[in-house]
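Could someone model pyridoxal-5'-phosphate with this protein?
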Amino acid sequence: MNRPYNFSAGPAAIPPEVLQQAAAEMLDWHGSGMGVMEMSHRGREFISIYEQAESDLRELLAVPANFRILFMQGGGLAENAIVPLNLSHAATVDHVITGSWSQKSQKEARKYCSQVHIAASNEADGHTTLPEPARWNLSTGTRYVQACTNETIHGVEFHELPDLKSLGCDAPLVIDFSSHVASRPVDWSRVGLAFGGAQKNLGPAGVTLVVVREDLLGHALPICPSAFDYKIVAEQQSMYNTPPTWAIYIAGLTFQWIKRQTEGDASGIAAMERRNMAKAALLYDFIDGSAFYANKVARNCRSRMNVPFFLADESRNDDFLAGAKARGLLQLKGHKSVGGMRASIYNAMPLAGVQALVDYMREFEKKNT
Ligand SMILES: *Cc1c(COP(=O)(O)O)cnc(C)c1O
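Reply:
Sure, complex below.
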């Protein structure tokens, strides 16, 4: 089946093979006589789905043995509260501001911490640059340093994780990697905790991935809800309460899909990264070569996943979107806070989809100049 190319920022496109497999297994999962949504989360069948998903993800992302993988609920925004509830000791924490999502994080943290210190911000540049880690103003005794490593709305991405130790800071780095998880490898030696909602790059909305270093468990504030206490969630294999079983199952199918991907001699996450680099280069090179379109983000921190761009003549925005839709290029409208267009080109977007977008953009430019 030929489906349109879907550039949604999230919930976003899921690989068709994953949807087909889920459809085929909808009424009867592996001869069990039940669909996955109808199974006890404590039954043999679902436990096997859960364990496979966890071990596939651990392998794909090369998660070290001293990190726990949790499948939680509440999305990225709930983690903005759950992280300080577990890690802040109600004391001082540092945040780095790079766009809308990191802004939300620091605001939420203020409810639980005695001080939220802004160590660096790119606000003066309209969130189009990344503050150099060497110049971050980290506070002594901070409980953690939190950053959003891919700003989904502003299209700014860290291409290397900050190395806090080299900056003389022993606190753990907390990252919101919601919108680029599984698009590239993660250097876990620099991370204490990573969280991300699934609906950008891993599967459907409803499950939130948390990867947390073991020594950070067990420090929750007394007011922390038990269902959000990382230690309790870890001890119960994410089944203190009923986990989002369907979303975990689809994420698990997506992990298997990623494992099967190859690009040249690379496979799995390395293949995804190569493909994502090629996709991003194709789109940014076209935009940079045109006077009709523009991307305002500094070249060294442009996101491979979310590409905001503007038409020089914004009065043609509606035309552009209508023409794109007619060509089977969906959900290209930019976020309302930024305007213009945004192409989200997550793992599930093939190179052919980006090529189709570039072909359309070229034709639209020709027709309108
Ligand atoms: C989408 C997104 C969120 C919010 O996720 P919810 O599931 O809506 O809570 C948080 N952070 C980033 C970077 C995102 O892209």
